UniProtKB/TrEMBL annotation:
Source species, domain of life: Bacteria
Residues spanning the membrane: 53-75, 152-171, 429-447
Matches recorded under InterPro entries: Cyt_c_bgen_Ccs1/CcsB/ResB (IPR023494), ResB-like_domain (IPR007816)
Official protein name in the record: Cytochrome c biogenesis protein ResB
Domain ResB-like: 1-483
Subcellular location: Membrane
Origin species: Actinokineospora guangxiensis
Membrane topology: Multi-pass membrane protein
Coiled-coil residue windows: none
Amino acid sequence: MRTALILLFLLALAALPGALLPQRSINLRATNEFIAANGWWGEFLDRVQAYDVYASVWFSAIYLLLFVSIVGCLIPRTAEYAKALRAKPVLTPRNLSRLPHHTSADDQRDPAEVVAAAKARLRGWRLVEREEDGGVRTVSAEKGFLRETGNLVFHFAMLGLIVSLAIGKMINYEGQVIVLANGSQFCNGGTFGYDSFRPGLRVDGTELTPFCVRVNGFEADYLPSGVADQFTADIDYQSGADLDTGTWRPYSLQVNSPLRTEGDRVYLLGHGYAPVFTVTFPNGETRTQSIQWRPVDQQTLLSEGATKFDPPGVTDPEQRRKQQLAVTGLFAPTQVVVDNVLSSHFPDLTDPGVAVDVMRGDLGIDSGRGQSIFEIDQSLVDSGRLTRVARENMSLGEQITLDDGTVIAFTDVQRWVSLQVSHDPAQPWVLGFAVTMLLGLGVSLVIKRRRLWVRATPTGGGRTVVEVGGLARTDQAGYGEEFSRIAAELSEPNGQRKD
């Protein structure tokens, strides 16, 4: 057990880097920024898997050793406990006066009456009555075996918790996706629908629980200070038989009120804005594009992003790559412009504005390589394949005209929500074992293990010496008072206690 406690302490200590350092599985961008900002120290932490703590070799080794240690501790303790349950209470010691608790008194009753009174008073204890030489009668009693039961239940529940967590890590999955709050839908049909996806060790993403979510709208309530009070997403969902019938069921999704369907949970993580730009090309054709921009200031929701356009009617790949457009920059839901620098002073959508750079040229979207939706490839700018053709601050409804007659208008703002889908069938087991651990711990702390012996020795003349001895099997206080009360009742004629 000492080894298990040491390993449990080491496991808690090993988990600290996971709470203090960014983790690659949760936030890859923050992890890379931390490594770049801390030089050799950041690279050293990466080599020792400090950014992948819960998947690291050393954390898994401690976890496995803790499991083995608990199993190795519980097997002999369970066998010993089963043996103790079948055993009778130990013989009455020859010299009860050596025990921590002891009383002795003369009694007018004979030994048989004393023993009968003791057995009646100790009802509920494990009792054994014995006879010794010279007409001496004894009673051995034990109580508090549930203490060890609670202790074993606690440790078996801990073992079950460890196993459940391990199984959960194998069969769970978790994904995040951004959905525009304009009636756009997300369906849990495969990993391709997610912006980020973290599968368990036995999940390949081909058998996800089927369901769909449609985000109809989003409302955010703020205090005058700009602190968020409540987020609510108005959604519809369909799962199970509803997928066949096309039935949509409404749900009000809030931060602390996830949608639970088909064993999965859908959480509302956050929200942001997607500015809408309409581009009118020289040939008169228009393109309207809305893409989420990511917040760079969570307090005011000042956001950055890049909205990209392909020119219409251009079939030659070389010419198309020269005429692609990207509107990049900052978006402020409540704009403040000081010295031509845009910022935001409130997160709600009261006076939206953008500060944009319009880039023209090759955006790299035809290269076949993935790229961020929030920014352009800086290497294309450095190489001259992508150049800035305009820079302007714009309020909602304003527009700018480029040198070739292209008109870019800031026409609308839409909201988006960030959803997280979590699937963990082992979660009810984890909860059940955690509750069982608390119950077992409570029983082991409240119940005291103790022993009590009564010896009735006849002395002649109708007198009997009644000795009562007690021994607490734990270090908990309180048995002295109980022993004194029992001893007083057993030592008095007819079981009456002296005042």
